[in-house]
Here is the input.
Amino acid sequence: MSRTPPHPTREQIELPMVLDCLSDPIRLAIVYQLAQQEPVSGELCCGDFNALSGKSNLAYHFAKLRECGLMQTRVAGTNRFVRLRRDDLDARFPGLLDAVITSAAKDADRLRLLSERDVVEAD
Amino acid sequence: MSRTPPHPTREQIELPMVLDCLSDPIRLAIVYQLAQQEPVSGELCCGDFNALSGKSNLAYHFAKLRECGLMQTRVAGTNRFVRLRRDDLDARFPGLLDAVITSAAKDADRLRLLSERDVVEAD
Here is the structure.
């Protein structure tokens, strides 16, 4: 039995659901943090986001991000790893993810987005 | 007394509110229709959207679009005219509005976006 939770296919990703998912400041912060990780492995462990919110609240947001097609979840033992579905999103909505991430970066202070330093300090 | 309803200033426009506002299919259709109008006057009369939904429902969506900063409303006699706040949005969130409109156009059938022909027929 696969322990990988269900993900929508590329064609099942819908624009209103993606925009709604991104309209939450914590989910926006998760997406922003994953985008910063893209030049490296693109993947982060769920525990890497503990500075953003409580565990059960984060689990809820991770599920929303997975169900709307923004994020891929991989289960490995007792760990869960997440990454942006960059190829699928860029194919479905060219330029949208980058525009949202650029806009979020511009408002990093207002949105209280964490820098890499903050993440390390919160460990 | 000015009859112009209140609008947020450019600096008061917030990314999560804009994304939330755009996550509704009817509001997305209104924005899309206004974007198609930009090469002409950029402005449409509220009645031009009657094919999208009922009048009171549309009034609610127009208010949401105005309050989040996506749309400018101008009152002239008994008419209300609306336009996208293109300059403000492009200054606050470069590329975002265009990416959303391009993505919506790509999914026009799924989102049941009206073509100009449909709008004329619905008059």
